[in-house]
Write a structure and sequence with these properties.
By secondary structure, the protein is α+β, with helices and mostly antiparallel strands. It is built from three helices and five strands, in the order E-E-E-E-E-H-H-H. The strands form two sheets. The protein has a three-stranded antiparallel sheet with strand order 1-2-3, with no helix packed on it. The protein has a two-stranded antiparallel ribbon with strand order 4-5.
């Protein structure tokens, strides 16, 4: 695969393929020197455009659930107005796990909407997703910190 940090401008000129499905391209490094590379994973779109993105994360999969994402965003907006943007980063994971469990308990009791005092007005599931996202990001940040 292409080390795109080495390429001054994203993308390559495709010079064709060989029988092993490897592509040969010409790129330029940060010094402006022409380099020839071999890479795999070239995808041709319906518009005929080509891009080396076979091994990249398909972020558009998130949008297969647009209404759920919108509801999660509304919970995040509610939190931003109530506590300030990114305040969640100052709270421990234990508190988010506890909040997640409280929202789940409300669902188990048959209350699907978070309409109680101070509630978001959204489905409890959207609050659970926010809590889970925060716990996930806290875990990722801790792992990164432990690596360094």
């Amino acid at each position: 695969m292409v080390d795109e940090s080495y390429v001054s401008e994203p993308g390559c000129v495709d010079e064709g393929t060989d029988d092993s499905k490897k592509h040969i391209g010409i790129c330029f490094n940060a010094k402006g020197e022409e380099i020839t590379i071999e890479y795999e994973g070239l995808q041709t779109g319906s518009d005929g455009g080509k891009k080396c993105d076979e091994s990249k994360t398909e972020m558009d999969l998130l949008f297969d659930a647009p209404e759920a994402l919108e509801m999660v965003a509304k919970v995040l907006e509610f939190g931003k107005k109530k506590y300030g943007r990114c305040n969640w980063k100052t709270v421990t994971m234990e508190r988010y796990r506890s909040a997640l469990q409280r929202h789940f308990l409300e669902i188990k009791k048959g209350n699907i909407w978070d309409n109680g005092k101070g509630g978001t007005g959204q489905l409890h599931w959207s609050n659970i997703v926010c809590c889970a996202l925060f716990c996930l990001q806290i875990t990722i940040d801790e792992l990164k910190e432990n690596e360094s």
